[in-house]
Amino acid sequence: MGLVHFGPTLKFRVIDSTKNAVKIMINQKTYEFHFLKRDIENSYYTTEQQLENNSCTGCPNFKCNLK
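RE: above sequence
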């Protein structure tokens, strides 16, 4: 047992996308699908670059879009 602990990893596959939702497959063996509602008012980041720029909590110049 090491000193570093890695938390669980969220894995899913985007199957389809509409203006209001994203259809994702969360279990490839059972073909379990779910829909994620798109809501710009509750979105932390709207681009991958924003996520990369603000993904280090406690780092200098850390910015977070939490309201």
